[in-house]
Amino acid sequence: MLSARSLFQEILDHDESYRLFCSIAASGEAQGGWENGRIAALVPASQRALAPKAARHGADEDKHGRLFNALLRKRGLQPATVPEETDYTALLERRGIGLAHDKLRRDEPLTEQDVVTYLAHSRVTEQRAAGQMDLLKKYFGGHPEIGRAILMIAADEENHLAYCHEELLRLAEQGHGPAIRRALRDCALAEAAVYRDVSLAVMAHMGRILGWPRAKSAVLVAGIRAVYAYERLAGWRRMVTLRTPERRDALGGPAASAPEFV
Known about the structure:
Layout: H1 4-13, H2 15-42, H3 51-74, H4 88-94, H5 101-105, H6 112-140, H7 147-210, H8 214-233
Helix pairs in contact: 1-2, 2-3, 2-7, 3-7, 6-7, 7-8
Protein backbone atom coordinates (compact mmCIF):
# COMPACT_ATOMS: atom_id res chain seq x y z
CA MET A 1 0.00 0.00 0.00
CA LEU A 2 1.34 3.42 -0.96
CA SER A 3 1.30 5.76 2.04
CA ALA A 4 3.37 8.60 3.44
CA ARG A 5 4.82 6.22 6.01
CA SER A 6 5.76 3.48 3.54
CA LEU A 7 7.18 6.04 1.12
CA PHE A 8 9.47 7.62 3.69
CA GLN A 9 10.43 4.22 5.06
CA GLU A 10 11.59 3.25 1.59
CA ILE A 11 13.68 6.43 1.34
CA LEU A 12 15.09 5.87 4.83
CA ASP A 13 16.10 2.27 4.13
CA HIS A 14 18.18 3.07 1.01
CA ASP A 15 21.51 4.83 1.58
CA GLU A 16 21.46 6.89 -1.61
CA SER A 17 17.88 8.15 -1.27
CA TYR A 18 18.47 8.86 2.43
CA ARG A 19 21.65 10.72 1.52
CA LEU A 20 19.78 12.93 -0.94
CA PHE A 21 16.92 13.56 1.50
CA CYS A 22 19.22 14.62 4.35
CA SER A 23 21.39 16.70 2.01
CA ILE A 24 18.42 18.65 0.65
CA ALA A 25 17.14 19.24 4.17
CA ALA A 26 20.55 20.29 5.53
CA SER A 27 21.11 22.74 2.68
CA GLY A 28 17.74 24.40 3.14
CA GLU A 29 18.19 24.75 6.89
CA ALA A 30 21.67 26.23 6.46
CA GLN A 31 20.31 28.83 4.04
CA GLY A 32 17.56 29.69 6.51
CA GLY A 33 20.12 30.07 9.26
CA TRP A 34 22.17 32.54 7.21
CA GLU A 35 19.11 34.53 6.18
CA ASN A 36 17.83 34.92 9.73
CA GLY A 37 21.28 35.81 10.99
CA ARG A 38 21.57 38.60 8.45
CA ILE A 39 18.06 39.84 9.21
CA ALA A 40 18.91 39.97 12.92
CA ALA A 41 21.91 42.14 12.09
CA LEU A 42 19.97 44.49 9.81
CA VAL A 43 16.59 45.06 11.48
CA PRO A 44 15.70 48.76 11.67
CA ALA A 45 16.07 50.67 14.90
CA SER A 46 12.28 50.74 15.35
CA GLN A 47 12.24 46.92 15.47
CA ARG A 48 15.42 46.21 17.42
CA ALA A 49 13.50 44.06 19.90
CA LEU A 50 13.05 41.60 17.05
CA ALA A 51 16.79 41.11 16.53
CA PRO A 52 17.47 38.51 19.27
CA LYS A 53 14.43 36.49 18.18
CA ALA A 54 15.52 36.49 14.54
CA ALA A 55 19.00 35.49 15.71
CA ARG A 56 17.50 32.63 17.74
CA HIS A 57 15.51 31.60 14.67
CA GLY A 58 18.72 31.52 12.64
CA ALA A 59 20.56 29.57 15.34
CA ASP A 60 17.81 26.96 15.34
CA GLU A 61 17.99 26.61 11.55
CA ASP A 62 21.77 26.23 11.70
CA LYS A 63 21.30 23.54 14.33
CA HIS A 64 18.84 21.69 12.08
CA GLY A 65 21.37 21.73 9.26
CA ARG A 66 23.97 20.23 11.61
CA LEU A 67 21.49 17.59 12.73
CA PHE A 68 20.82 16.41 9.18
CA ASN A 69 24.54 16.31 8.44
CA ALA A 70 25.10 14.38 11.66
CA LEU A 71 22.49 11.84 10.58
CA LEU A 72 24.51 11.34 7.39
CA ARG A 73 27.72 10.86 9.35
CA LYS A 74 26.05 8.30 11.62
CA ARG A 75 25.47 6.15 8.55
CA GLY A 76 28.91 6.84 7.12
CA LEU A 77 27.57 8.96 4.27
CA GLN A 78 28.84 12.20 2.74
CA PRO A 79 26.46 15.03 1.76
CA ALA A 80 25.20 14.87 -1.81
CA THR A 81 25.13 17.75 -4.27
CA VAL A 82 21.68 19.30 -4.05
CA PRO A 83 19.99 19.50 -7.47
CA GLU A 84 18.94 23.07 -8.32
CA GLU A 85 15.36 22.04 -9.01
CA THR A 86 15.01 20.75 -5.43
CA ASP A 87 16.30 23.94 -3.76
CA TYR A 88 13.10 25.24 -2.15
CA THR A 89 14.70 28.34 -0.62
CA ALA A 90 16.42 29.46 -3.82
CA LEU A 91 13.29 28.90 -5.91
CA LEU A 92 11.23 31.03 -3.54
CA GLU A 93 13.81 33.81 -3.81
CA ARG A 94 13.68 33.64 -7.62
CA ARG A 95 9.94 34.23 -7.42
CA GLY A 96 10.54 37.34 -5.36
CA ILE A 97 9.28 35.79 -2.14
CA GLY A 98 11.03 36.88 1.04
CA LEU A 99 14.04 39.17 1.17
CA ALA A 100 16.53 38.90 -1.68
CA HIS A 101 19.99 37.66 -0.76
CA ASP A 102 21.52 40.69 -2.50
CA LYS A 103 19.71 42.91 -0.04
CA LEU A 104 20.80 40.80 2.92
CA ARG A 105 24.45 40.89 1.85
CA ARG A 106 24.49 44.69 2.00
CA ASP A 107 25.16 46.39 5.32
CA GLU A 108 22.11 48.62 5.00
CA PRO A 109 19.34 48.61 7.60
CA LEU A 110 16.10 46.99 6.58
CA THR A 111 12.83 48.91 6.53
CA GLU A 112 9.69 48.07 8.47
CA GLN A 113 8.18 46.85 5.18
CA ASP A 114 11.16 44.52 4.83
CA VAL A 115 10.38 43.16 8.28
CA VAL A 116 6.77 42.54 7.21
CA THR A 117 8.04 40.74 4.10
CA TYR A 118 10.41 38.60 6.18
CA LEU A 119 7.80 37.61 8.75
CA ALA A 120 5.10 36.89 6.15
CA HIS A 121 7.52 34.67 4.23
CA SER A 122 8.51 32.92 7.46
CA ARG A 123 4.91 32.44 8.58
CA VAL A 124 4.07 30.61 5.34
CA THR A 125 7.24 28.53 5.09
CA GLU A 126 7.22 27.62 8.79
CA GLN A 127 3.62 26.41 8.40
CA ARG A 128 4.86 24.06 5.70
CA ALA A 129 7.84 22.94 7.78
CA ALA A 130 5.74 22.36 10.89
CA GLY A 131 3.27 20.26 8.91
CA GLN A 132 6.03 18.13 7.42
CA MET A 133 7.70 17.60 10.78
CA ASP A 134 4.38 16.69 12.41
CA LEU A 135 4.00 13.95 9.82
CA LEU A 136 7.52 12.67 10.42
CA LYS A 137 7.03 12.86 14.18
CA LYS A 138 3.83 10.82 13.91
CA TYR A 139 5.50 7.98 12.05
CA PHE A 140 9.16 8.18 13.06
CA GLY A 141 9.36 10.08 16.35
CA GLY A 142 10.37 6.85 18.08
CA HIS A 143 12.77 5.67 15.39
CA PRO A 144 16.15 4.68 16.90
CA GLU A 145 18.19 6.37 14.16
CA ILE A 146 16.32 9.58 13.38
CA GLY A 147 13.69 9.93 16.14
CA ARG A 148 15.59 12.29 18.46
CA ALA A 149 16.45 14.69 15.65
CA ILE A 150 12.87 14.68 14.35
CA LEU A 151 11.41 15.45 17.78
CA MET A 152 13.82 18.34 18.34
CA ILE A 153 13.28 19.86 14.91
CA ALA A 154 9.50 19.47 15.18
CA ALA A 155 9.46 21.34 18.51
CA ASP A 156 11.60 24.12 17.04
CA GLU A 157 9.32 24.49 14.00
CA GLU A 158 6.32 24.92 16.27
CA ASN A 159 8.20 27.64 18.13
CA HIS A 160 9.10 29.36 14.86
CA LEU A 161 5.49 29.32 13.70
CA ALA A 162 4.26 30.72 17.04
CA TYR A 163 6.88 33.48 16.81
CA CYS A 164 5.72 34.49 13.32
CA HIS A 165 2.08 34.66 14.40
CA GLU A 166 2.91 36.74 17.46
CA GLU A 167 5.18 39.20 15.65
CA LEU A 168 2.83 39.68 12.69
CA LEU A 169 -0.08 40.36 15.05
CA ARG A 170 2.09 42.91 16.85
CA LEU A 171 2.90 44.65 13.57
CA ALA A 172 -0.75 44.56 12.54
CA GLU A 173 -1.58 46.48 15.72
CA GLN A 174 1.00 49.08 14.65
CA GLY A 175 -0.88 49.72 11.39
CA HIS A 176 0.74 47.19 9.04
CA GLY A 177 -2.37 45.02 8.68
CA PRO A 178 -3.08 45.67 4.96
CA ALA A 179 0.57 45.13 3.99
CA ILE A 180 0.68 41.92 6.03
CA ARG A 181 -2.45 40.54 4.37
CA ARG A 182 -1.07 41.27 0.88
CA ALA A 183 2.32 39.78 1.69
CA LEU A 184 0.82 36.63 3.20
CA ARG A 185 -1.48 36.01 0.24
CA ASP A 186 1.24 36.57 -2.36
CA CYS A 187 3.67 34.37 -0.47
CA ALA A 188 1.16 31.56 0.13
CA LEU A 189 0.20 31.30 -3.54
CA ALA A 190 3.81 31.39 -4.73
CA GLU A 191 4.96 28.94 -2.05
CA ALA A 192 2.30 26.41 -3.06
CA ALA A 193 3.61 26.43 -6.63
CA VAL A 194 7.24 26.16 -5.52
CA TYR A 195 6.40 23.33 -3.13
CA ARG A 196 4.66 21.48 -5.97
CA ASP A 197 7.66 21.91 -8.26
CA VAL A 198 10.16 20.87 -5.61
CA SER A 199 8.04 17.87 -4.61
CA LEU A 200 7.86 16.73 -8.22
CA ALA A 201 11.62 17.14 -8.62
CA VAL A 202 12.43 15.29 -5.39
CA MET A 203 10.09 12.42 -6.26
CA ALA A 204 11.63 12.16 -9.73
CA HIS A 205 15.11 11.85 -8.22
CA MET A 206 13.91 9.35 -5.61
CA GLY A 207 12.14 7.34 -8.28
CA ARG A 208 15.34 7.02 -10.29
CA ILE A 209 17.38 6.05 -7.24
CA LEU A 210 14.85 3.51 -5.96
CA GLY A 211 13.79 2.18 -9.35
CA TRP A 212 10.12 2.94 -8.98
CA PRO A 213 7.88 1.60 -11.74
CA ARG A 214 6.10 4.14 -13.94
CA ALA A 215 2.74 3.39 -12.36
CA LYS A 216 4.01 4.23 -8.87
CA SER A 217 5.65 7.44 -10.06
CA ALA A 218 2.47 8.41 -11.90
CA VAL A 219 0.38 7.96 -8.75
CA LEU A 220 2.78 10.14 -6.76
CA VAL A 221 2.82 12.84 -9.45
CA ALA A 222 -0.97 12.84 -9.53
CA GLY A 223 -1.09 13.15 -5.75
CA ILE A 224 1.32 16.09 -5.71
CA ARG A 225 -0.65 17.87 -8.42
CA ALA A 226 -3.92 17.22 -6.59
CA VAL A 227 -2.52 18.74 -3.40
CA TYR A 228 -1.43 21.81 -5.36
CA ALA A 229 -4.86 22.15 -7.00
CA TYR A 230 -6.49 22.13 -3.57
CA GLU A 231 -4.00 24.62 -2.15
CA ARG A 232 -4.37 26.91 -5.15
CA LEU A 233 -8.15 26.83 -4.86
CA ALA A 234 -8.67 27.14 -1.12
CA GLY A 235 -5.95 25.52 0.97
CA TRP A 236 -3.72 28.60 0.82
CA ARG A 237 -6.04 30.30 3.29
CA ARG A 238 -4.71 28.21 6.17
CA MET A 239 -1.28 29.67 5.44
CA VAL A 240 -2.38 33.28 5.85
CA THR A 241 -4.58 33.31 8.95
CA LEU A 242 -3.13 34.79 12.12
CA ARG A 243 -4.01 33.81 15.66
CA THR A 244 -2.55 34.43 19.09
CA PRO A 245 -0.31 31.42 19.72
CA GLU A 246 -0.47 29.24 22.81
CA ARG A 247 3.31 29.53 23.02
CA ARG A 248 4.02 33.16 23.83
CA ASP A 249 7.52 34.60 23.32
CA ALA A 250 8.49 31.25 21.80
CA LEU A 251 11.91 32.52 20.67
CA GLY A 252 12.60 34.65 23.71
CA GLY A 253 15.46 32.54 25.04
CA PRO A 254 18.64 30.87 23.79
CA ALA A 255 18.50 28.06 21.27
CA ALA A 256 18.54 24.53 22.70
CA SER A 257 21.72 22.60 22.02
CA ALA A 258 21.75 19.75 19.54
CA PRO A 259 21.92 16.11 20.71
CA GLU A 260 25.30 14.63 21.47
CA PHE A 261 25.64 12.85 18.13
CA VAL A 262 26.21 16.19 16.32
